[in-house]
Specification:
The chain is 30% helix and 24% strand. It is of the alpha+beta class and 184 residues long.
Length: 184
């Protein structure tokens, strides 16, 4: 079994009942025979996914968003998909039962479909609504060129990285067009 969590600001805000409840649920899942996928697409709030922030940053470098996969049968390992604001969302390997192949889920396609089908385009005006927390100059520059970069990615294939975090060692395998996996 696999649980997929999309973090909310309440999950990431210290002192909120939602964070307390999420941490309790996260702990229960981590102690069970259930895979956990956490999708953090918020820049606000504190780091909340199961992988330690300093550990993820040491292996992946800076990221704006990330996806954390923890497989119950490899409890010391984490798969981290680091995402910069100007990048497309990655395809994520969703684990099933040990011995079964993973199912690839294209998060960008899922979120585009959700955005198009839902009220978001009518409710949010990205040209005029304030962005919280404010963007850094680097993020503003990245967003300004995102449309051109996205067109380039669509014609050349997206660059996607998956970082495998494993206790005790570092290994690099895979390749840039599908995934870069780093274990420690």
């Amino acid at each position: 079994m696999c649980t997929i969590e999309i973090l909310s600001l309440t999950n990431k805000t210290p002192g909120e009942k939602g964070q307390e409840l999420y941490r309790q649920k996260q702990s229960e899942i981590l102690e069970s025979n259930t895979h956990l996928i956490e999708i953090d697409l918020l820049r606000a709030g504190i780091h909340t996914t199961a992988v330690a922030l300093d550990r993820a940053l040491a292996e992946t470098g800076k990221f704006d968003y990330h996806v954390c996969v923890r497989r119950f049968n490899r409890f010391e390992d984490f798969e981290v998909y680091p995402i910069l604001m100007q990048q497309s969302l990655p395809s994520v390997a969703v684990p099933l039962m040990p011995g079964d192949s993973d199912v690839e889920v294209d998060l960008q396609a899922v979120f585009e479909r959700t955005y198009d089908a839902g009220p978001f385009a009518r409710a949010i005006d990205y040209r005029t609504d304030p962005v919280e927390p404010p963007l850094t100059p680097e993020q503003k520059n990245g967003c300004a060129t995102f449309s051109a970069a996205r067109e380039c990615q669509e014609s050349n294939g997206p660059e996607r990285r998956t970082i495998m975090l494993h206790a005790g060692r570092n290994e690099i395998s895979g390749h840039w067009n599908t995934s870069l996996k780093r274990k420690f």
